[in-house]
Amino acid sequence: MKQTHGVYFGKASVSLMVDERHQKPTKIIHKGDTEFKRGVIAPWGDDNRYPHKFMDAIRLNGAASGGLSLLKSAHYGNGLTFYKNQKSETTGKREKVIEYKEDHPEIQAFFKRNKMNTFFTETISDLESYGIGFPSLILSKDYKKVLRIRRQKTAWGRRELMNPSSGFSEMVYFKSQWDDDDTKDAAKIHSVDPMWCYEEILEYCQRKRLHEFVLPVHYTMTDEAYYPKLTWHAIFNNGWLEVSNSIPMYKKHLFKNQVNIKFLVHVSEAYFEGQYGDDWTDKFDVDQRNKIREETLKAIDDHLSGNESSGRSMYSRKLKDDDGKWVNAIEIEPIDNKMKDGSYLPDASAANTEILFAMMVDASLIGAGVPGGSMGSGSGSDKRVAFDILSALFKTKRDTTLQIWDLIKEWNGWDPELQAGFENVKLTTLDKNPNGKQSGI
Q1: How many angstroms separate the first and last alpha carbons of the chain?
Q2: Strand 2-9 and strand 132-139: pairing?
Q3: Roughly what angle, to the nearest 10 degrees, separates helices 269-276 and 286-304?
Q4: pTM of the predicted model, to two decimals?
Q5: What is the strand order of the sheet 187-190 is part of?
Q6: Average pLDDT over the chain, rounded to whole?
Q7: Would the N or C end of the chain have less CB density within 10 A of its end CB?
């Protein structure tokens, strides 16, 4: 029995007749007038530089950088661990029993040859940063084995526009700097549909004579066609990241350019007339009077400056002005320091809180206080519970990453009962475990 499904992209739509046995297109009916051209990419952002601009902004922000590092670490946990679901002889229930790579020589050799710990660390970095990864797999000449797997940098990758004949992006182009959408100098690798099973990918590679292909792995797309829009990227689009980044820049320039004056000293001309009598006007010329003024101001400044001036008093006579009112011959006016109240720091705190909320990272995990609470960074119990909750939320994300392992395992004919998972780091107290942590898959 065959069913019809619709695939939509841009202004074109394709109806696919799908065979239930293999779930692959067997007949294609074109609709619309969009003409497919090889080498035309789907731009990532308005200027095709979204990944670079986004990461540049993240690197300037301590809260976002710390939160992103925590997401990567929590996703990876203690790394990829192998196990089997074996039935217990006593309880009859299936239990997870740890397996070791050393007991599977072919897997051990593959992991060593491809530096799989590094591969998964880098792929997880791409997934947590952008929600999509572009690993490429290299096949043997007879298509029977996956020999190599490489992490292609997500920020460098751009997907080709969907081909109406197949309903998916058939190429991924890679270039370190995308100043435009020109693919002339970009490297290109064939891509497969991430929804295909092993048999469909194998058939496609044999038909196209491909020995290397990209397997796009990505988090859930809601209404996106080519690149996921992670929910926490809202901080970049709604301005909170810009607000948080602008405050330290403003403070830096303010501290650099502000004039740090503590007192404003007023010295009446009558002070010098009373101090020197008729000599002030009759004996001293202009240069002498200016010199005396400078020496007097320097003496006052020396008297008020330095640590020794703390608690010091100063004598100044009172004089009558022309109206007969008593005035100070010397008056010292303190200047209010507008920076003493930590201006804009509450705004920075609010911005950082919004950033961590969007990333679903508890502030206590990166040393910040709980918003609205005390100034502390949370107790050890708060941190343990927060980290346990964060790790529990990674189930669906890790399933996305494990699609790569599942395909390689099936392709290379490894033990079908052998399972893999990223082992959680389970924090505990030192009285229960000397190193303060335990593990669990």
Answers
A1: 41
A2: unpaired
A3: 110
A4: 0.73
A5: 157-159, 171-174, 187-190
A6: 82
A7: N
